[in-house]
């Protein structure tokens, strides 16, 4: 067993202002996406499936994505995972420092941001998504690290040598999978490497988007087998199906569809 590091949830205190690690991880994720996006824009070409991009367009794109992600992730968590609580105490939805952000809700919010951005900038929607999904995994990496620092979304009880005892009383004081780190490694590092390699060569428009959806859906579904389901939901069926897996299934199917259709159109 590995001791769980005792983190102070507050990273920086400036008088009455407290900057929490959870929020700081989001900022780092957005800054990483912005930096990588501007770098990719300087190397984009008009004759590529993603089209030509300018750093100024990336600035606008990241702004749209930030708004879509934060609104979608918080509203998605309220709708998918803890609807009764937010109905009883609506103001809880603004307390994002308490955690409770749904990736799938955030993905819906970002998808809407893509649609609005593509219409305003007169860009093909799939060119926008292909360009942007490569920038998403670093944000997922830092977001999962934020979950780990918060000591939330821990895994199921286990006796593996790297198990940890999380300080949350709800964790029961038993060794558990550090599932947040599994997700950081798969959704953040492995998925980023896969997308970066795949998009380094010209690919049919929509295929990079499809690979992101497929890759995330598969990785998330696998980690869910080690992650403790949300207490207010539990298992949805068969003592193993979780909400995360249920929401990931459409992503897997949609991702496969994008890949198959994009390559079929190219032939």
TrEMBL record:
Coiled coil: none annotated. It is an enzyme of class 2 (transferase). InterPro entries: Lgt (IPR001640). It is a multi-pass membrane protein. Signal peptide: none annotated. It holds the Pfam family LGT. The chain crosses the membrane at residues 20-41, 61-81, 101-118, 125-145, 243-264. One of its GO terms (cellular component) is plasma membrane. Keywords: Cell membrane, Lipoprotein, Membrane, Transferase, Transmembrane, Transmembrane helix. Its EC number is 2.5.1.145. One of its GO terms (biological process) is lipoprotein biosynthetic process. It comes from the Bacteria. A 1,2-diacyl-sn-glycero-3-phospho-(1'-sn-glycerol) binds at residue 144. One of its GO terms (molecular function) is phosphatidylglycerol-prolipoprotein diacylglyceryl transferase activity. Pathway: Protein modification; lipoprotein biosynthesis (diacylglyceryl transfer). It is found in: Cell membrane. HAMAP family: Lgt. Catalyzes the transfer of the diacylglyceryl group from phosphatidylglycerol to the sulfhydryl group of the N-terminal cysteine of a prolipoprotein, the first step in the formation of mature lipoproteins. Belongs to the Lgt family. PANTHER family: PHOSPHATIDYLGLYCEROL--PROLIPOPROTEIN DIACYLGLYCERYL TRANSFERASE, PROLIPOPROTEIN DIACYLGLYCERYL TRANSFERASE. This is Phosphatidylglycerol--prolipoprotein diacylglyceryl transferase. The gene is lgt.
